[in-house]
Amino acid sequence: MSQKGNYGAPPKYLNDFSKALASEVRILLAEVGKLRDERRQLQYEIAELMAVKSKHGAGGEFTPDWAPKHDEPPPMPASPPPAPPSVIDDGIPARPAWRTVHKREERRSKAKAKALQAAPPPPPAITAPEPVNLPAWAQWKPNPLLSPAPMMGSPSAPLPSDHAMPPRSGLFGPPSPPPK
Asked: What is the DSSP secondary-structure string of the chain?
């Protein structure tokens, strides 16, 4: 019997592939539709903004340089206001405002001058302590402010001395006992 016209059901992998492909195409079509709607919304907003700009720009409905029309020109002032009274004018040019100022030395009062002349006597010289017959190593005394103090460990950073060391173990296990 020949199988020319009768193919039967398609294989399962083709059916699964076509379903997966159809779902992907649906997702992509939904994204394309959403992008199209967003584009139309943006175009509408741009058109609205351009309409507002044309209304408020030059030559639009709300022209900013608009002024009411006058039937008659405004009246001219009768005479210019009188000049303010002039300040004293001697005809002598004024000294320039910028000038060099020389700093003077401080004036010493008579009391200060006397205090500087009668200076107190210098303090007596400090005598060195008598040497003690001690070896060189015993003469050295450390500064008590710089002496080290034992540090306390914290739970987050314990010091090695805070807890007992675990028993030593070698690379291949515990060490072997000493020979007898």
From this structure: ---SS---SPPHHHHHHHHHHHHHHHHHHHHHHHHHHHHHHHHHHHHHHHHHHHHHSTTSTT-TT--PPPSSPPPPPSSPPPPPPPPP--SSPPPPS----PPPPPPPPHHHHHHHHSPPPPPPPPPPPPPP---HHHH----GGGS--PPPP-SSS--GGGSPPPPP-BTTBSPPPPP-
